[in-house]
Amino acid sequence: MKKVSSNLLSFIDLWTYEIAKYSTSNELQWSFIFEDDVNFVPPSNFSLKTYINAIEQLMDHPEIQSKHGFFYLGICGPTFSNNSSLLTNKESNNTLVSRKGYGWCSHAMSITTKRARDFWFHMSSYRPSPEGGIDLYLRQYSIQSKNEYYILGSNVHWPSNTGHFGIAYQDRKRFRSRMN
């Protein structure tokens, strides 16, 4: 339970205080949050330039920037929306797709200063019931509020024998947790 509480409190503190404290430009400035066990799909699958262009495309997308203020770089066990348009990246010859959904995991995400400031308030107002880390709260909030977020590389299943989708994934083999 200590590990779960620590995870939840760290995200609340990060969203509510830390991002705003270090944001220098405006309310729509993006911050990236990575847990300590995140890794990326090998560069041989997509070039670094493709990743950068795809991230910029999401950051500059009017709906994502002003309405959502949040997107995932990877997610576990996703449920994808059937009601949203797919965003494709031209740099990847349209092989890197972003689609709305929700799921598990909170190891790689991006959030605007504006969204970070009020995200926990909005999530907690839906009274999520799970006892767990921030990934459970995000999932419950998405289901109850019907707010779904884009997942960069939602068509990329990596590593193939896991439930991870996107350009980032949880790599506990390479990055073992030291928390008990």
**Secondary-structure content class:** alpha+beta
Using the alpha-carbon principal axes, give the shape: globular
* Strand content bin: 15-25%
Radius of gyration: 16 Å
Poorly predicted regions are none
Query: What pattern of helices and strands is seen along the backbone?
Result: HEEHHEEEEEHHEEE
Secondary structure layout plus pairing:
Elements: H1 2-22, E1 30-34, E2 38-40, H2 48-60, H3 62-68, E3 70-72, E4 74-80, E5 87-88, E6 97-104, E7 108-112, H4 113-125, H5 134-145, E8 149-152, E9 164-166, E10 168-170
Antiparallel strand pairs: 1-7, 2-10, 3-7, 4-6, 4-9, 5-6, 6-8
Helix pairs in contact: 1-4
Structural features, described:
This protein is α+β, with helices and mostly antiparallel strands. It is built from 5 helices and 10 strands. Strands 4, 5, 6, 8 and 9 form a 5-stranded antiparallel β-sheet that branches. It has a 3-stranded antiparallel β-sheet with strand order 1-7-3. α1 (2-22) runs antiparallel to α4.
Overview features:
alpha+beta; three-stranded antiparallel sheet; globular; 10 strands; 37% helix; 180 residues; five-stranded antiparallel sheet
Brief rundown of the structure:
The chain is α+β, with helices and mostly antiparallel strands and 180 residues long. It has helices spanning 2-22, 48-60, 62-68, 113-125, 134-145; strands at residues 30-34, 38-40, 70-72, 74-80, 87-88, 97-104, 108-112, 149-152, 164-166, 168-170. The chain has five helices and ten strands.
